[in-house]
Structure formats: C-alpha cells, structure tokens
Amino acid sequence: MTGIDQIPFVDLISPHRELRAELVQVFNTALDNAGFIGGPMVATFEHDFAAFCGTSQCVGVSSGTDALRFALMAAGVGDGDVAVTVSNTFTATAEAISQTGARSVFVDIDAGTHNMDPRKLEEYIESHCRVDRDAGYLVDRRLGRRVAAIVPVHLYGQPADMNSILEIAERYNIPVIEDACQAHGAEYYSKDSGSWKKAGSMGRAGAFSFYPGKNLGACGEGGAVTTNDNKLAEKIRMLRDHGQAQKYHHDMAGYNGRLDAIQAGILKVKLGHLSNWGAQRRHCAKRYRELLKSTAGVVLPMEPPWAKAVYHLYVVRVENRERVQQYLADAGIGTGIHYPIPLHLQKAYRSLGYKRGDFPVCEAAALEILSLPMYPGLGHEQQRRVASELGAAVSLGRTSAMAMAVGAGSY
C-alpha cells in the first residue's frame, strides 16, 4: 500500500496543522508572562468548559484519572467503601476507584449501548445489598462495605441511561460520578428537567480526560471535573494542589494534580471548535450507518432516542474479529479494539474474585467489538472504502466458517 491509500484509525495531525498559529500563540504567551502553573489561562478555560457543559464549576486537573479520583474523594469515597461501575472500560475507571482506597464492584452492560444496564444495577442492589438503618446507607452484604458511589461510563461518547441510574441512586442516597472521559459534548434527554443535558452535568460530578486522542484533546495530559456543587469543587481544588486553599496552609493531605497553563490555553483554543467537530463526527456516524446498514454480519452501534452521542469511537461488532481486523490492516485501514479484555478478567483485578461468565453481555461484546476510523475530516470516499473492505472481510470470514462447517460434516 502507498501512503495515499492508507486510512488512519485517527488523525491527530490535520487539526493541529489547521490551528498551528493559535496554538503557537498560546506557547508564546506563556513564555512572555512565565505563567506556567495556574493563572488566567487555566481560569479562563475552566470558566469556558463549565459553560460548555452546563455546570457552574469546572476544575482543571492533570489527567482524566485524577479527575475521576478527585471527584470520588471529594464526594466522600474512601477506604473500606464500594463504588459500582462496569467492566468494559479503560482501566483508569477502576484505578481511580482503587486509588481512593475503595473497591470496584462491577455490573453487566446493556447489549445495545454497551453502557451500564440499570436493570443489572438494581439487581445488584436488591440481591447483594442491604440498607443499614442505623448508619443510613447501603451496604454490600458479602463485602460488608458501604456502597459509596455509582460510576456510569459514557463509553465511546454514548451517554449511559442517566434517568434510570439517577432514579436508583436517589432512592438509596448514593452519589453518581459520571465517567465522561470519552463524552465531551454528548447529550442526554433528562425527564426531570424536560431538556437535553450535557455529559458531566447530571451526576454529583463528571470526570473528563483531555488525552490527545479525545474529542477535546490537549497536546499532552490533562483532565477536568465538572459539577454544580461549589463545596465539592473547592475540595477538588485543594486536592489537586497539595491540600492547600492558601499557599503553605495545608488543610488536608493532597496531590500534585494541576492542569498546566499551556495545556489549558491549548484546550481553550480547541474548545471553540469542539461543537463543529462533534457535528462532523455525528455526520460520519450517519454515513457509516447508511453504508453498512445492509451489510450482513456487522452489528452497528445503537443510539437511543434519548441520546446524542459524539462518537469518540465508532464501534461495530463482527465475528472472527481478529481475522477481519487483519484483513482491514492489509487493505491499509487502521482499526482498534476498545477493549479486548474486560477489567474483571484482568490480572490487575484478580483479587476482586470475579471469574469468566460473571458478566456474559460484557464478555460477549469484548470478543466482537471493532473500532473503525472516526475523526473530523474523515472523507466520504474514505468511509465508502472502509465499508466496502469491511463487508468483504466479514463475507470472507463467513464463507470460511461455512466451508469449515461443511468440511467437518464430511467426516
């Protein structure tokens, strides 16, 4: 394949070329005023991102992992607690929980959206928990631990079913911390308000990552917490800065988790383009649906009527996934797998005591999911070729499987 035939999985070069002058100016400004930590660039980005998300507060931090960890800690999650989440997510979701001293408890996912299944959440609470009347909170019976948070993940830029999750959480007085690290600008229709709400604005807090490959990505690491809780925001500001609200006055043991000023300036520039980039991603997703809707053997992502996904990733499901992926690679088409091994089967979380078969929907998805090229600027002809090659790859796999079955039957 020649370079012109390649279709990358993601394009991080073109947008930076287009914004080069504005991005370089951010660096020049930082050099001129030596404002590398904190200062106006961080404060301005925090103000603008809070407004974008529809929240009163935004606190910039050093990564998405820190955003989720600090949000959990500020919400009171700590040693001896339990936080309920899903297993089909990047490991940082569970890392943030364990770094607070709490323990992850997983529930299975909805087969259509690949997000937390509220029915499984309710089943876990009703079958495995009890209400401690004296203490006034929910306790996991087997672990003897307080259920201190629910952490739905808006996976691939698709909002979880927040109406149902929030209703369950409110019933048991459990804070909901949204893992919105892949969902910058995604929207969900809130029944309570009768309006569309941005990811990160519905729970007690929302955690975002600005890793370079995200829909809103820094030129390095970065993250943020959004919330409408002023006290929680203030606690996160202290946690990110060594536990101090005033220089050298440390009210708690904190961390070095600040957002660099240069990254904040870069993010402010890009934030001005995020809505347009999100619209382009949605348009690309619509084109994929049109091109692939009649392709046998390809299961397309589901977008419920109550969601406006921003397609951080466009994830289909196919059988013989590795064979299909290799076929596309040979055709010059980049793909990814997000994620091949669910967290409950990872070596790092073996101590949680889960086994294969505990979360069948999640495990079945992990064997079939395949992320196709998705980024603003992805051309129609490029998508047409992706769809054509994917159809050929799936057809070849199905033909091979049928031939093997016939061969086995001949004995």
Q: What attributes characterize this protein structure?
A:
411 residues; globular; Aspartate Aminotransferase, domain 2; 5-stranded mixed sheet; alpha+beta; single chain; Aspartate Aminotransferase, domain 1; 40% helix
Structure notes:
With 411 residues, the chain is of the alpha+beta class. The protein folds into two domains: 257 residues, Aspartate Aminotransferase, domain 2 (3-Layer(aba) Sandwich); 129 residues, Aspartate Aminotransferase, domain 1 (Alpha-Beta Complex). It is 40% helix and 16% strand. The chain is built from twelve helices and 16 strands. It has a five-stranded mixed beta sheet with strand order 3-2-6-5-4. Strands 1-11-10-7 form a four-stranded mixed beta sheet, with helices on both faces. Strand 12 and strand 13 form a beta hairpin. Helix 4 packs parallel to helix 5, helix 4 crosses helix 8 and helix 10 crosses helix 12. The longest helix has 32 residues. The chain is globular.
| Tally of strands | 16
Strands side by side in the biggest sheet: 3-2-6-5-4
CATH class of the largest domain: Alpha Beta
Net shape = globular
Which stretches of 5+ consecutive residues score pLDDT under 50? 402-406
* Major sheet description: 5 strands, mixed
The whole-number mean of residue pLDDT values reads 95
Per CATH, the architecture of the largest domain is 3-Layer(aba) Sandwich
Q: Cα-atom Rg, whole angstroms? A: 22 Å
N→C terminal distance: 41 Å
Query: Can you count the helices?
Result: 12
Helix content: 25-40%
